[in-house]
Structures are given as C-alpha cells and as structure tokens.
Design goal:
It is built from seven helices and seven strands, in the order ααββαβαβαβααββ. By secondary structure, the chain is an alpha/beta fold. The N and C termini lie far apart (41 Å). It has a seven-stranded mixed beta sheet with strand order 3-2-1-4-5-7-6, sandwiched between helices. The protein has a single domain, classed as 3-Layer(aba) Sandwich (Rossmann fold). The structure holds S-adenosylmethionine. S-adenosylmethionine binds next to helix 2. InterPro entries: SAM-dependent_MTases_sf, Thiol_S-MT.
Length: 262
C-alpha cells in the first residue's frame, strides 16, 4: 500500500473527529470546568457528536449487507452491543423481534436510540425496549437487567472498542445467548494483508484515544469463528464469516458473520 494513502486516510479521519467533537468538548468544559480532569467523560461527549456524522455515512455504506445479515435472522429478544445512535434498530423485523435491548454505555446517545426504537415500534412503556448503560463486558449485570437469556446478539462496529474482547465474547455467548441463538456481527477487522495490517498497528495507539477506544487491529472475525468453551470445543453448531465488498487498502476493512450457538 502506498505510504500516502494510509497516512492521509487516518489523518483525514482524525482531523474530522477533532473538528466535529472539539467544539462540544470545549462547551462542556466551559459549563463544568472539573470535566477537564475526566478524559472518559470528555471522550464520550466528543464521540456522541462525532458519530452523528460518521454513523450516518457508515450506515448508508453498510445498508445492503446489514439488511441481509440482520433482517432475516434477528428474532425474539435481541441484544444490540454498543447501540450507538440506534442505527441497528430499523433493520429489525418487528413481527419477529419481541424485545430490543440496546446496550450503550454512552448516555449522550440514549435519546437517539429511544427515538429510532420508537419509530421502529419498540417502547419502554410496553416493555419491548430496554436501554442499558453498562458495557458488553458486564455480562452479569446484563443478565440480571434483561432477566432472561437472549435469542440474538448483534454487534455492529463495536467489538473494536469492548475491553477484554475475547473473554467478553465467550461470556456473552455462554452466559447470555440461548442454545440455538444467533450471534450476528459486522465489524472492521485486522487486515489479512501485511502492509495494511502494519498501518493498522501503527495508527491504533493514536486512534484509540481520538475515537473513544476504537482499535483498528483486532481480528474479531477469527475470535468469533474460533470461539471455544472451557474444554476446547467450539461453541457454535454452525456459522460462517462473509466477505463485504470493501476496498482492501482501507484501514477499516470489514467482514460480517452469522453464528448459531450449540
Ligand atoms: C463505532 S460505534 C457503533 C455504534 C452502532 N453499533 C452503529 O452501528 O452505529 C461503537 C459503539 O460502542 C459503544 N461502546 C463503547 N464501549 C463499549 C463497551 N464496553 N461495551 C459496549 N459498547 C461500547 C460506543 O459508545 C459506541 O456507541
């Protein structure tokens, strides 16, 4: 890959992120000066605003793939990891999904989730919508809040951010997903090309601080497909990763997958 392509790609994204997020961060500090010592809070304020622009574009680009991945397969109680501004809920077939559980640790995104969920026919009033503020790694807390195991887990561009992703994945599947339940993902991943992977590794220590914890270099597709239980057996009855039509030189190269639990 040409040096200029990789450098310009990320420099452009970092510039956009700062341009969109910084005014909100400065306003928040002006209103509450003690926030200057709270990087996590500032990062969330920035990201909630940045994702209004980035998320929309990302959703439009992924629409065809997300429709084929989510609409025919999501059913019953659906847990959406890192629901963001609610871009996943419009893909749910309301006649097959009984409850939408949106897991989103950034509270600045909750009003958007609520709005999109209402438009898709889910509401807290009738119990078909639940918004949780914990992270995906807090599996015990998720289970006690939802009060039942779930039929479908969806992760769209979120496993790049989750702490301890492999342990979290195993716990989500073992403890929260019902047998026969489906895990659907659409993620940007570590490239199979050595030159692209080099740049992903190069940029990740910077990008992770700019973009609210996002890692460019996680082989999430392999972590999901190779997931095994305590005795080393696959947790899946069936499943496969699918290619997405995405430029190979892009540092956000992505794959999606559909896996069914044993
Ligand atoms: C790139 S955004 C994707 C949002 C959404 N899935 C979409 O497709 O528009 C990643 C999301 O993961 C959330 N997130 C961050 N840490 C998380 C964690 N530990 N567990 C679950 N979600 C997390 C972020 O707040 C953010 O909304």
């Amino acid at each position: 890959m040409k040096f200029s392509l990789a450098v310009l790609d990320l420099v452009g994204q970092i510039w956009m992120t700062l341009r969109l997020g910084l005014p909100h961060v400065l306003r928040a500090i002006y209103a509450e000066p003690s926030l200057i010592f709270n990087w996590a809070a500032l990062s969330r304020i920035s990201f909630a605003n940045v994702w209004i622009a980035f998320g929309e574009g990302s959703d439009v680009h992924g629409r065809e793939d997300k429709t084929s991945l989510i609409t025919p397969h999501a059913r019953g109680v659906v847990l959406d990891l890192g629901a963001g501004h609610g871009y996943t809920v419009p893909y749910l077939d309301r006649s097959k999904v009984t409850k939408y559980v949106a897991l989103e640790p950034n509270p600045h995104m909750h009003s958007h989730i609520r709005e999109k969920a209402h438009a898709a026919g889910f509401s807290e009033a009738d119990g078909s919508l639940l918004i949780l503020s914990c992270g995906a790694e807090a599996t015990a807390s998720i289970l006690s809040s939802v009060d039942t195991k779930v039929d479908t887990i969806i992760s769209i561009l979120t496993l790049c951010t989750v702490p301890a992703p492999q342990a979290t994945l195993l716990s989500l599947v073992q403890d929260i997903l019902v047998p026969g339940g489906e895990f659907l993902f659409y993620e940007h991943i570590l490239s199979h090309r050595a030159d692209v992977a080099w740049w992903q590794n190069f940029w990740t220590p910077v990008w992770v601080h700019v973009f609210d914890g996002c890692n460019l270099n996680r082989p999430t597709n392999l972590w999901v497909s190779d997931l095994v239980d305590d005795i080393g057996e696959s947790v899946w009855a069936e499943g496969k990763c699918l290619d997405i039509d995405w430029p190979e030189e892009n540092l956000f190269w992505r794959k999606m997958g559909r896996f069914v639990k044993k």
